[in-house]
Predict the 3D structure of the following.
Amino acid sequence: MKHGKRISLAGMLLGLLALVALAGPGAVAVAQEPIKIGVIQPLSGPVAASGNFVANGARIGADWVNERGGVLGRKIQLVIEDNKSDPKEAVTAAEKLIVRDKVPAIIGAWGSSMTLAAMPVVAKHGVPLLVETSSSIKITKQGNPWVFRISPPSEMEAAGLEKVLAQDLKIMNTDFLAVNTDWGRGAVGAFGDVLKKYGGKLHAVEYLDQAATDMYAQLTKIKNSPADWIMVTTDVGQIALILKQAAELGIKKKILTTGGSSAPNKLITLAGPAAEASYHIVIFLPWFPEAMPDAALAKRFVDEWNKRGLPFEGLTESFRGHDAVFTLAKAIEIAGKAEPTAIRDALKKVTWTGLNGPIKFDHEGQSWPSIYMIQIREGKITLPPFMRRS
Amino acid sequence: MLAAALVGVPVWLTNQYLVHLLILAGLFTILAVSLNLLLGYTGQLSLGHAAFFGIGAYTSALLDVHLGLSFWVGLPAAAVAAGLSGLLIGRLAFKLRGAYFVLVTISFAEVVRLVSLNWMELTQGPLGLPGIRPPSIRLGTMASIPFHGKGAYYWLVLALAALSYGIASRVVRSRIGRAFVALRENEALAESVGVDAFRTLVLATVLAAAMAGAAGSCYAHYVSFVGPEVFLFSYTITMVIMVIAGGKGTLLGPVAGAVIFTAVPEVLREAQQFQMTVYGAILILLVIFMPRGIVPYLKERRAGAP
Amino acid sequence: MDTLLQHLLNGIILGGTYALLGIGLTLIFGIMNVVNFAHGEFYTLGAFAAYFFLALLGVNFYVGVAAAIVAGVLIGALCERFVLRPLQGENIDTVMLVMIGVWIFMQNTELLIWGGIPQSIPHPFSPRPLIVGPLHVNSIRIFVFVVAFCLIGASHLAIQRTKLGKAMRATFQDREAAALMGVNIHRIHTVTFAFGSGLAAAAGALLGPIFLVYPSMGDLAALKAFSVVIMGGLGNFMGATFGGLMLGVAESLGAGYISSGYKDGIGFIMIIFVLLFRPAGLFGRAQRIG
């Protein structure tokens, strides 16, 4: 069987390498080997689009690192695996990457359930996991020393925008419509807490199934609530449907979407006039790269993405792949070797400014990303005045 | 020979990834064997089987996370909980036959999934239950060694898989087993010779459910994270594929199906974005060329029949 | 009271779409006895075909929808000829398994071709709601509701009144007798499956512009279609229609008054209750076909 052959072949190769290594500093041949970095993303199933965006962002990151001569004189090679939106597959992918491909670090796994399932695997094998998208607060609270995250949990997202919500948008009474996943529920909890803090109030809280396409029932209930805002947490497809159906029902409330998955320009295409005047929380501003902390880098990334013919709406997620790859590259540089434990220790020392903003991990392995907001006006993305001050 | 090799795996197979795959294959063997009792032997297409797996997983997980009870309590509890739900759904569903039965099983599984997704206080809903502790072996009264590394899990799963195969084998050869087959072939005739269809079918369901629940418990402690994904219809579909493609109504069929259909997606990883498309194509071709399943096909070939 | 009416209206229109999903499957599952797990994929195929003709080629709306239906019929015929016919006479489970394979194959091929990003289909109907008193309803939904009922009616007539329809019913009631009477069994199988798939594609092409188009859109639709078909009594067009309406209204009211998280669960609980009290479906006693 194929695997059997691979084992004995690998065994022979390892044996040879051991001999060579023992024989003396003839390890030059080994040094030219690329450094493999594992990437686990949902490449099939209902969120395949997002997984592919992140993977493509990572590819740009790897290509750029290699253009500059790689890391420690070696090129970076991404090994990308599909987790099929199934936690058990995330586990299998992690095992395969660590055992067969011997990656010293992994980026993944998009969805919080997949990431949580992969975490014990990386802990057991001792390989750092850089979380790029998952939002569940549990990820950094498990006490797993191998986990680092550059994406914000909902709590951080809400806290980062407290002033904007309270003073600029003046959201005092809002409904909430969220997708029934850890992400949606987490957002309701996090934003609810922030609202309470400054004296705002949550009225109708409704959930929708991940696969739902008809939200009339929930929206009818929302229509009857006295709140003047609706906060929405779900992906671009469902947001578009919510906006359209809300307009169809004659709902006149102001809308704010959270979570950074609104892909606003896709939203304009999908929802048309129904998207007018809505606000959206995003983690990257591909329309205004000049407003990002490293404006030049942001512009380069957007240009490269467009050059590769990739869909523009992917930019609201793909930057994560790029930032994750660069963060790992920098960690490997600091560590001086592509070895898991060294990389883990080096990650604690990494500090640089990525596409989203400054990346630096706290004692729980959490970095504090910047949060932004845009508004759709007259079919275009605009940066609200309160976002323009530095 | 093969048995010795299988038992010795943690000793001679150092590739942990492959051991992991064998553990998964073992879990799915239990699931496929249990589903085969219903689908293959009694001829009832139960498409809610993932529900029993999930109930077992959640039972074991909740007992550990909320009450700190170890796997050795969780495992039998999971089997019992799943068995009881099998009793419940069996008593409800077996008032029906055919497509109506199928639909009730699907509906039941979906309702259970939605409960796990929405009953936040109990299951934490979509946030899931992380941090389920591995089983541990007690030494005397003081020390206990937790399962470390895959070896122990492998032996556990191997033992349970062998046990479930043994149980299935015994049942199938017994009077009950003959009753199953009689019901599958001609229910009216079976009843006329004294087989109580309702009770027999419910018994089959309870047994299948308990086995699936036990597999669920192992899964929970092995992966150490349980979320509503365990109830996904795609899990049931995978089990169905394993049973039918392996050869329903045979003893080895589900085992072959479990092993092959755990291996195939892994091998297909090489195909990158074409993985699942190729998987679908393979399945179609497999069914067209081996309509009864792999094991019956191989048996026919060996017997020399065309 | 207004809210109740709005929920009811929502439910009826939603139910109409479910009925549309169900009629194609009633032919294939109810009459041909094929557990067609790929039914949702023909729905998706219809939607993507409509997307292709309407959004990418810019064809007239009604022509585009018709073209999408034709696409569904053709692919359905191909599927029957090359996948189902070799398995004729095989166990129902074997056929079910091959359709699972088709499901996986079609959905992932669609993912490869179109990517996973949801797309929208342009249509000539105004996005602004029609307001009748306190009730809001969208004009395209009314259009789809009307078309759905026309399709249901036309299919019913086709099965009951035409020669082809009679041949179909004869074939599936008693194959040997039909063959002896000179019916071309192979052709009937192909036509029936293509017909059912075409109806699924019609549902996709009509619902695509209301909702969105993405490769996994068929999964939930297929599940609902099965529920509707079985509840209505296998092979019973009117039953499936009524079942669809019931499901839509139950979901709407359930989500409106009980809990939106359990919205889909309401449908399934209702199914369980219906089948417990009427084990052959709502209209099971009625004639098995048509």
Q: What stands out?
A: The longest helix of chain C spans residues 2-31. Residues 286-290 of chain C have pLDDT under 50 and may be disordered. Chain C touches chain B through 46 residues (CB under 8 Å). The longest strand of chain C covers residues 130-132.
